[in-house]
Structures are given as structure tokens and as C-alpha cells.
Design goal:
Blueprint lengths: L1 E7 L7 H17 L6 E6 L13 E7 L2 H8 L2 H9 L10 E5 L15 E3 L3 H11 L3 E6 L10 E6 L2 E6 L10 E5 L3 H10 L4 E7 L5 E6 L5 E6 L1
Parallel strand pairs: 5-8, 9-12
Antiparallel strand pairs: 1-3, 1-4, 2-3, 6-7, 7-8, 10-11, 11-12
């Protein structure tokens, strides 16, 4: 994974409010459409009492799988549209740009929990989760390469992981996996376009979240939850 870091300043004729509003609500959705983009984060300048004036008004961070993915993205019409839109709010006389590879020095001791779902047929599960739900197959392990099952598969999308396993003893069919997402409705539209059967259409729950459910062939339910 590599990360592009872009330090920017607002155009002189824009107020902070105008700059931040345009960056988030107009430019952000344009940039989010860049193909191959794994994650996009906007960090706004915060004025802290006693600090000297900041060198930049904000920082944009864009994650890609690798250098080829970044280079391919640069050739896309979506990248070109995002670059062209910068003239509407960025002062290009004072920017900084670099591509980085992260080396974590310190982080939380507990990194993540990864749900495991039991499946009967690894190939069918791979088709459902990858072709239907947009996960990528990160790895697949089995005791005999000539046999499709049993198989232990790692599936990933946007940094969220789940394990689908057809090994005996790895879970039971009919499990539940909660996935916290940015927009349930965007995923709903994506899944419908792919022909994924929706078990529960997007609904506002009484406890304050918006949720959508899908179910695989083994009765495992994936609950997509938006806070």
C-alpha cells in the first residue's frame, strides 16, 4: 500500500469556510471517483493557541494498492477531472506533494477483529463476496491444491476483512458479520446493479443506525451499518 500526500492552501479570494466547504462537498466526491483509490482522507488546518501560523490549510491523503495502481489512476478521466477542479479552490503557488510508504512506529495493541464465516463451497462464496460484494481475494489456503474444498479464504475491501472457511470446525453456517460503512445507500445501489439479492433494504433503525442486510448461500448474514 502506498499513500499520496498533498498539502494545499486556499485561493486568496476564498474564506476558510468557503474553502473547506468546497473541498469537502464539491471536490471530495470528484476525487472519490478515482479508480483504484482505496482510501481518501481530508485533514483540515486547526488553529491552536500559541502556535505559529500553519504552512498549509489542509492535507489530502490518497491510498493505492501499489505504484502501478497509482500510475493507472493518473491516466484516468476521473483523475484529470479532479486535477482540473483544483483551480477552483487551491492556490497552486503554495503546495507540497509526495508519495509515501508508511512505516508504523507506534499503534494500538489491538488492531482489529476479523469475523469468520463458515461456507460449504469456497468457489461459490468467492463469487458472492468478490463479484457481488466487491471484496478482493487476499489469500486462499487448502491442504490439497487439486481440490476446491476445504479452503480458508481471506477477503478484503477498503481495509475491512472477513474470513470465509469451508474447513470442518471453522464456525457454523448461519453466522452474522457486522460491517461498518460510510454509506449504506451507495452500497445498496452498487449491489442492485450487480444483481445481489438484498435481504433487508436500507432502513433507519430505532437505535440510530441505518442498516442493510445481505445473505449468502450458507445463510450467513452480512449487515452493513452506517452510524
Amino acid at each position: 500500500m502506498i499513500k499520496l500526500i498533498y498539502c494545499i492552501n486556499r485561493k486568496p479570494d476564498l474564506t476558510d469556510e468557503q474553502f473547506f466547504d468546497y473541498w469537502k462537498n464539491v471536490h471530495g466526491p470528484i476525487g472519490a471517483r478515482i479508480p483504484g483509490l482505496r482510501r481518501l482522507v481530508q485533514s483540515r488546518r486547526v488553529n491552536v493557541a500559541g502556535d505559529k501560523p500553519a504552512d498549509f490549510d489542509g492535507v489530502a491523503e490518497l491510498w493505492f494498492d501499489d505504484e502501478p495502481a497509482l500510475l493507472a489512476a493518473r491516466e484516468s478521466s476521473e483523475w484529470k477531472a479532479s486535477s482540473a477542479d483544483e483551480a477552483n479552490f487551491i492556490d497552486h503557488e503554495w503546495v507540497a506533494y509526495l508519495v509515501t510508504e508508511e512505516h508504523v512506529i507506534r499503534e494500538r495493541q489491538f488492531k482489529a477483529t476479523i469475523p469468520l464465516l463458515h461456507v460449504a463451497n469456497a468457489a461459490a462464496a468467492r463469487q458472492f463476496y468478490c463479484d457481488g460484494l466487491g471484496f478482493r481475494l487476499a489469500f486462499a489456503h487448502g491442504p490439497d491444491e487439486t481440490l476446491a474444498d476445504p479452503c480458508y479464504m481471506g477477503l478484503e475491501r477498503d481495509g475491512a476483512w472477513l474470513i470465509a472457511s469451508s474447513f470442518p470446525g471453522d464456525g457454523v453456517a448461519g453466522g452474522v458479520c457486522n460491517v461498518m460503512v460510510g454509506s449504506v445507500d451507495d452500497l445498496h445501489a452498487e449491489f442492485l446493479a450487480k444483481g445481489v439479492k438484498i435481504d433487508l433494504a436500507p432502513v433507519n433503525q430505532t437505535w440510530g443506525t441505518r442498516e442493510m442486510y445481505v445473505r449468502d448461500a450458507d445463510r450467513n448474514t452480512v449487515r452493513f451499518i452506517q452510524e
